[in-house]
Specification:
This protein has 223 residues and is an all-alpha fold. The protein has 2 domains: 17-62, Homeodomain-like (Arc Repressor Mutant, subunit A); 72-205, Tetracycline Repressor, domain 2, CATH 1.10.357.10. Helices cover 67% and strands 0% of the residues. It contains 10 helices and no strands. The termini are far apart.
C-alpha cells in the first residue's frame, strides 16, 4: 500500500523588504479574492492580478491556494488574539478586563466576519483548514486559561475549576455567539451582548460582580 503523499513545507518568509512587501500584497489580494469569490472558486491568477504581480511570483512565497489561505487567516488571528486590553484597563479590575476583552474580540470578529464565514465553510470540506481552525480555537483557550489561572492564584476565581476546560467552554460560548450575530445575522445589540457575555464569564468563575447602580427615586409631583 502506497504511503500518503507528504505535504510540502511552507515557503520561508522573505528576507528582503521588497519580498516582504510582495508577500503582504499577495496576502491582501488573496483575502479580497477569497471573500469575493469563495474559497473553491478563487483562482491563483485572480490573486496575482489583484496583487499586480506575475503569476510566477506567487510560487516564490506560497506553494498553493491552501497555504495563502492559511496566511490570510493567520493575519486575522493576530488581530483577534492580541487586543492589548490590559494596556488600556490594567489588571486591577478583572471584570473590566473581561468586558474589554469580550468587546475587542466581538469588534474584531465583526471586522473579519466575511473571513470567519469562509473559515467555517472551508473547515467542513478541507481537513487541513479544519485542523487550522481547531488550533486557532486552542490558542484562544490557552490565552484565556492563563488569565483564569492568574485569577485563581489571586484568590478571585473558583479554585476548583479546571482553567483549561473552563477557558475552552467560555471561549466557545463567545465565539459561537459572535458567529450567530456577525455571520448568521442574528440581531443583538452589541452593548447588551458584551454585558451578557461578561456576566456569564464572571458567574462561571464566581467572580464578585459590582453592585448595579441604584436608581434614583423620582420626586412625586405636587398638585
Amino acid at each position: 500500500m502506497a504511503s500518503p503523499a507528504r505535504k510540502p513545507d511552507p515557503k520561508p518568509a522573505p528576507s528582503t523588504a521588497r519580498g516582504q512587501r510582495t508577500r503582504a500584497a499577495l496576502i491582501a489580494a488573496a483575502r479580497t479574492v477569497f471573500e469575493r469569490d469563495g474559497y473553491l472558486d478563487a483562482r491563483l491568477t485572480d490573486i496575482t492580478q489583484q496583487a499586480q504581480t506575475a503569476t510566477g511570483s506567487f510560487y516564490t512565497y506560497f506553494t498553493n491556494k491552501e497555504e495563502v489561505f492559511a496566511a490570510v487567516l493567520e493575519e486575522a488571528q493576530e488581530e483577534m488574539l492580541h487586543p492589548h486590553v490590559r494596556e488600556v484597563v490594567g489588571d486591577e479590575d478583572p471584570i473590566a478586563v473581561i468586558e474589554a476583552s469580550n468587546r475587542a474580540y466581538l469588534e474584531a470578529y465583526a471586522r473579519n466576519a466575511k473571513l470567519m464565514r469562509l473559515l467555517e465553510q472551508v473547515a467542513t470540506i478541507d481537513p487541513d483548514v479544519r485542523e487550522l481552525r481547531r488550533r486557532r480555537g486552542l490558542l484562544f483557550a490557552e490565552r484565556n486559561a492563563a488569565s483564569i489561572r492568574d485569577l485563581q492564584q489571586r484568590g478571585l476565581a473558583d479554585p476548583d475549576l479546571d482553567p483549561v476546560l473552563a477557558a475552552r467552554a467560555l471561549s466557545s460560548m463567545v465565539g459561537r455567539m459572535a458567529n450567530s450575530v456577525y455571520v448568521l445575522g442574528d440581531e443583538v445589540e452589541q452593548d447588551a451582548l458584551v454585558a451578557t457575555l461578561t456576566r456569564l464569564w464572571a458567574n462561571a468563575l464566581r467572580l464578585p460582580l459590582p453592585d448595579p447602580p441604584k436608581r434614583r427615586r423620582q420626586p412625586r409631583s405636587v398638585r
